[in-house]
Structure formats: C-alpha cells, structure tokens
Write the structure tokens for this entry.
Amino acid sequence: MINHLRQLVISSSVLFAVLVTVYPAHSAPLKVLHLSLSAAETGFDPVMTSDLNTAAIEEQLFEPLLTYDYLARPVKLIPRLAAQMPVISDQGKTWLFTLKKGVYFSPDPVFKGKLREVTAQDVVYTIMRFMDPKNRSPYKFLVDHKILGLNALADQARQTGHFNYNAKVEGLEVVGPYQLKIRLTGTDYNFGHAMAQPMFGIVAREVIEAYQGDTASHPVGTGPYMIGQWIRSASINLVKNPNYRDERWHFTSQDPQDQKIVQAMTGKRIPQIDQVDIQIVEEAQSAYLSFLKGELDVFGVPGQFAPNVLSGTELKPKLQQQGIQLQRLVDPAIAYYFINIEDPQLGGMALSRIALRRAILMSLNDEEMIRVIYKGQAFREAFPIPQGVEGHDANYQSLIHYNPQEANDLLDKMGYKKAKDGYRRQIDGGPLYVKYTTTLTSQDRDLEEIMKKSLDRIGIRFVSEKLKFPEIIRAERQCRVAMRLSAWIADYPDGDNFMQLWYGPHTHENNASCFQDAKWDKLYEKTLALPNSPERDQLYRQLARLLEINGVTKVSTSHIRNVLIQPWVVGYKAHPILPSTWAYIDLIPEGERH
Amino acid sequence: MWSFFIRRLLQMIPTLLGVILLVFFLFNWVGGDPAYILAGKLASAEDIANIRHQLGIDQPWYWQLWIFIQQIATGNFGDSWATHESVAHIFKTRLTPSLVLLIPMMIIETVTAVCLALLVAVFRRSMIDQSLMVVSTIMMSISLLVYIIVGQYLFASLLGWFPVKGWSDSLWRDLTYYAPLPIFLGLLVSIAPSLRLYRTFILDEINQDYVRTARAKGLSESRVLFKHVLKNAAIPILTNLLMGLPGLLTGAFLLERFFAIPGIGREIILAVERSDFPIIKAATVYVAIATMLANLLADLLYRYLDPRVNLK
C-alpha cells in the first residue's frame, strides 16, 4: 500500500515537472479585457450594421482600407489594410489604393485549413455588397451614386432580383492583386472617410456565399480578433486572430498627456490583450456596480448617470482614491432644434413667418436643458459642425440667443397679438401653436416641460405629439414634424456630414426641416468641390448664418463623453470616431495589480 | 371526457383567429413602419421602398394576413427584421434563460405561499396572521424596480454575496451562481399577493361545514388541514398557478434587463421598440395558445381533483 502511494506521489511529481517544463507558456495568465455594451449586438455582417455597439465589435473583427490615428486630435486618416494613404487624382475623382501584402482572413472552415490572403478583388466585392438591394445596407449612402457604374448594377439587380457580382464596374478597377483604382462620379474629398468605416471591413466572397442567409452569424475578417464564444444578446468573447499579421504599436503624439501611453505601448505587438469579454448590460446601474467591483475594465458613463460619478468636471474623490481614471471628450455630435419650413403653422418664407420662427428659437433656454436634461454633461454649441470635426468654427457667434424679451418684442412688432387666454394668434387671427414631437421616454417628458415653459414665456401655445421613434422618422421624411430637438452624430469627421442636413435635395431623406433654398443649396454644392480648407470653412460659416437668418434651425448643444478606466488598463485613450480601440491597449496582469 | 377535450380544442380555433386579427390590425395600424429605421440615416425613398418590399409590408393587407396565418400554421415566423436572426432561434435561445429564472420562482413562490397561507389560516386573527398580512401589504406596495435597484446594490455590490449581473452557457452555473439573486428579488414581490390570495381560499374552506364535521369526528388538525382543506382549496390555487404559466413565455423583463440575462422578456420589449413584427407576432400567438392550453389543463385537473366536477 505504502509502495503504491509512493509510486503515485513520484509519478505525479514527474508528470507535474514535465507539464511545467513542456508548457511553460500556459502558466502565464491570459489577459482578458472585460467590457459592457449598452445594447445587444445585431449580428456581424458589416454591410447590414447600423448601430454603434455592433460596429465597435466589428472594428476588431474586420478591417477597412483606412482608419483613424489612435492618438491624433483632431482625428487623422491613416492606412489600415492599405499599405499607404491612397493617391488622389483628377480633382478628388480617382482614388488609387494599394493593399498591404500578407494580410490573411481569420480561420474558417470555408477556407479548408488554408491561409486566405486579401486581394483587391475582395475590396471590390465588399464595396459591391453595399449596393445589393438584398443587403438593404444602412450605410449604402457612403457609396450610393458615388462610384462610376455601380448604381447601374444596383438598378439591374432591382429589376432581375439578382446582383451580378461578376460584372465589371467602371469605377472599381482592379489594377493588380494588391491595387485598386476607384473612380468616382464627381469630386469627393471625403471618400477616404467612407473607406475608414468599420462597415467597410473587407470580407471574402466565398465566406459570404457559403453562409448565405446567415452571414451575420459567421463573421470572418482580417482584424486582430475573431469571435470565440457568443451567447446572443448576452455576451461575446473575442479571441486573438491567429492569422493576424505582425503589426506593431506605432502611434506618435506631441500632446504631453499622451507621452505615458506612447512610452508604455510603442513597439508592442498588436493586440496585447488575449481575449475581450463583452457583456450586454442595458442598465447603467448594473454596469456601474460591476465596474466598481472590478468586473469591468472600462465604463462609458451615460449622461444622466454623471452626477453619481462626477463632482463638476472631476471624478469623485472616492473613485480617485481607487486609482480610477476619468477621460472626458467632446462627442462629434450636435443636438439641434429644427422647424419645418413646410409646416402650415410655422413654415413659409414670408418675413412674418421667419420672425415667428426666430422668436420661437430665441425662447429656448439651452442652459436649462444642459442642467436638467443633460446633468451638466453638455455645453452650448452655436455652429452646426461640432468640435473635432473638420470645418468646425469655435469662434462662431450665433444670432439666436436665449432672450424671451426680445422674442416677445419681435412677435409684437410683427403683429402676433395675444388673445384673452394669454396666447398669441396668427397675424390673420387664426390659431397659433407649436406642435412639438417627442417620444415616450422620461427624458422627453422633461424636455416637453422645458419646451412648454419656453413657449409660454412668449405666449405661444405648446401642443405635444408623442410618437414611437420609427414613426417620428417617417413623419420627418414626409415633412410632417413641425418642430423637434434632433441630434446628429458624425458618420465621419467632416463638416459635410452635418451641413447636408439642410440640403434641399435631401428633403424627404434627412433634411427634416424640409428647407429648400436655391441660394443655400448653391453654396452647399460649392463646398462639395472643395477639400478641407479655409475657403470651405468660409462657405460653411455663410451656410450656418443663412440657417439662422431664415429661422430654420438653432444648434443647441454638444455633449461630453465621460469614460472611467480601471488603474490596470494601460494605453487607453478615448477616441471620438473609432467605435472601439481594444487592440491598441494593454492590461497589467492580475497578479501584478496593486 | 374525450368529447370535452376535442370540443375545447375546436373552440380554440375561433379564439385564435380573433387573436390573429387583433394582433395583425393593431400592429399594422399603430405599430409603426420599421423600414424607416432599418433604412439608416441617409436613405432615399427608393431604399425605403426596397425595404418595405423585402419585408412584405407593401403588400395588400389581406395578403399580409394570409402570410401571417401561413406562418402560424407552419410555425415558421421567418427572421427578425432588425437582426436577421430566425425567430425560431430567438425563442429557442432566449426562452431557456427566462425559464431558468421563472420556473424556480414559480415553484418557490407557490410552495412558500401555500405553506404560509396554511400557517396564517391556522392562526387566523392572531398576531402571526396580522403581522404577516401587514408585511405582505407593504411588500406588495413596493415596486419590483425598487427591490432590484436596492437588492443589486446591497447584496451584489456592497456585500458581494452575488454577482452584479451576467449569464453563461452552463445551466448549472446560471442556476446556482447568476440566477439566485434575481429569483430572490422576484420572490419578494410575487409571494405576498399569492399568500393573501391563498389565505383567502383556505379560510373559505376552513369555514365550511365539512371541516366542522371532520373536527367533530376527532380528526387531528393537521389531517383536517392537509387532507381536507388543502385538497379543496387546491382548485382555485391550481387555477391561479396555471393562469400564470403562459407568463413564462413572456419572461421577466425588469429582472432580465438589470441582471443582463438574455431572456425572452427583454427580447420582446426590444422587438416592440424596433417594430420587429415577426418577433411580436410569434410571441403573441405563442402566449395566446399557451393561455388556451393552460385553461384546458386547468379544467381537466379540476375533474381529477374533484370528481364531482362534470365536464360538459
């Protein structure tokens, strides 16, 4: 018996020693980044993606041709799958992309165990998919009517029910296995931004065709990560893509605050983190409590939750003591009021109606909105292009200030007289009211109260219209929404993405104010032919001023994004445009955390 | 018995047709048009028309209704309009987490409520009875949301007895690690009304003549309670229990949302927000069928528990 035991102990010791010797790497703990997303993913086929949460994951799974520099502010385009920045010629109409060599898709049974390299033909296929009516891509607009010959193919597909991916497209010329020339229908200096969107992550045709009908469940890209384990609507585990190339952390910055990041990360292989564990946590309280327990490494603080975390603009002392870091950045987005120019009550370009709209816009108290609705996590923005976006003018002075007295004077002067009930009537004595459209959320209830108070101050009756969000969008596109506080977040960081909101031909699309003015449209069209330049900025200022003069819109606020980071996260810098940057950061191993 | 069973099954057809019509017309008139959301931010009228065509919502109403009926007949509700995931797969994968939460809750709630109801019935009008009723009223008056917010903070964050949130793909781990706190908090709300209801049922029986006769015959109090009173009170208790069964299909939205449980309740609410008609249609039809079946089961069990009940 004793001999048996001795034998067992010796055997176990030998086995242990062998295991330790043979697999020393296995003893190193995995670096796992724990994150949460506030809404469930909607599937991982980039062409079908429309929400930011899904895009954040796709940013790690797929790679577009270009991307944004991790540290540069304002943001700067850099190559990702492209070997260098594209050669732009013919006044922004021709873009020549050269691909990196040796870029492989992540392993998938479709490839039958072989490495599959990315070629220019994959880029052509990826772009073509956006125009296939079957994919009903929400980001089709980035290439729609922009590439020579591509729309003809889409028209044909609508007629035949079949998109011909084998067809030659004039605007998509494969110059060589790693070179692609894209010819545009017109000058477009923003095309590079389109090619940096995660939705334009390159896919392999054979994979898409093999999983036809269920492509969203089979993401196969070239990104640093691939899907490990996936419980739909609950958790997504990303693991390192074994086929990812030897890419090194190379970002530079002149900003003194970035030097620590540069020092800690430069030269490290991307990605450093072995796994990314993402949980879908819709409630901010649950995510925050998890973060406090150390179960999450990064936490994006929702605006209304900010008072629990911040004292003014600083992190609460209790959190500071735990070594938690706070990063604040301005979202590339605006909240803006628009008034529908076709509305029978408020619309039209007669002087009296313009004055009415300007008076309404002057009655709106943005400071109260910032305090009550946004809990101080926003600031007054006057220009339609927000901070951090090309074309922004920090010195722009708005004509429309909060001034109920001046608004009342203007209305009196124009003949909008008050009746016995204290509310004004139209100049001809007809009823006058603002039908304000909102959703049923609690935040919108607060907003309604502020709106009603504002309009009461100038004697204009407030009428509320509550709709579900899809219905609001439909009503806006049919020019049926009289007035609303809307928001727009940059699809890409260029002023054009914001200014197009008032372009006449975009009425019934996303020009919710249905503003159609030949002078304005002509000026706007001039901006399209210009790259980011002082000349274009000047035109943007004129466009902004015209919007105010006509009482079409009032830019209200821009918002601050607060991100909490655990002390063991290394190299994190919140990015205003990239939906995720997990491949660029590192973690202090659990055993070394203090 | 069999003729009753078949007749009841046949009666379900017009009821189901009524449900189908109601759901169809309600959703088509007030449900919103998902094409405007699915189309994205800068969609043209042509894009929206293309989406409406693909979803089939540009078809005449009678044709859409016919497709809906076909879907019910085949059990194939197609794919989610928002995520392209098949509705069958959504129900298959999201129902289990909800059931892991709700079945233990239902069992614990029923057993606890019946036991406590018997206890307070025995000690009716005593201090125990009155105290329990006061506590029940207080517990019923507090919203589940309050229990969740306070409970999550206290038990998960402050005391660290439970995880704050999460779910895994292991049934055992879910049941023993992630589910206990949401189950406990759900019970805090659900036990009280059941207790009050069951107490009433039991007190109704205790005051019957047959109980007095049983006691007069010298039967022990426990025998009177468990053999006679509980058996007769079981019919309304069972009805209440069976009527709660279809609720299993709709999940527990708040608990699922706060504890990040990928259940069907969360999915249905999300579908309503997104105007994702295939999921809403399937959920409504499933719940309607489950309700009718639960009714039928209740009737059959009445007969089993009380042979005097005549099924006509």
Chain A touches chain B through 52 residues (CB under 8 Å). The radius of gyration of chain A is 27 Å. The first helix of chain A runs from residue 2 to 22.
